[in-house]
Amino acid sequence: MTSHSDIAKPLVRPDSYLTLHYRIELKSGPAAGSVFADTFSGRPATLQMGAGQWAPGMEQPLLGRQEGERFSFDLPAAQAYGERNADLLQWVTQAMLAEHGGEGAQFQPGDMVEFAAPNGGRYSGILKQQNGDAALFDFNHPLAGADLHIEVSLLGVL
Q: pLDDT at residue 35 above 90?
């Protein structure tokens, strides 16, 4: 007869479905020292490995970990969401902004606006500034260019 403690706890695989708590802290960039996300004080999150919810470099340190483990790791920007790309700072006409934001929509710098791509996909940008008939958007991922410190507590692995 085997006791419950002898049963091996499940390990994280590339296709696992996880229930976890995590905290993502920015280690570099303009917001260094700030916390981007933290679920430890609330409900746990779920993560489908390999589904694109997290960058592949953020998922890699989870592979092979055991249910019940709590650990942390540092990740350079290049392995997380990449470096900031100046080509992703783009001017958009006010007409295009109205088309995507709805007639009469008012936007302030810092607002995130979602646009439809010609292929039917969607992408988001942060409004940086407006002048007359155009608006400057940053289409980089909000974590691009930031080195990250990530703390994880694996509550469940399926």
A: yes
Cα 62 to the chain's mean position, in Å?
16
Q: What per-residue string of b and e applies to 109-143 under the rule 16 or more CB within 10 Å gives b? A: eeeebebeeeeeeeeebbbeebeeebbbbbbbbeb
**In the predicted model, what is the mean pLDDT of the chain?**
90
Q: Which CATH number fits domain 86-138: 2.60.40.10, 2.40.10.330, 3.30.450.20, 3.90.1150.10?
A: 2.40.10.330
Fold that domain 13-82+143-157 belongs to in CATH: Chitinase A; domain 3 (3.10.50)
Tokens of 29: 């960039």
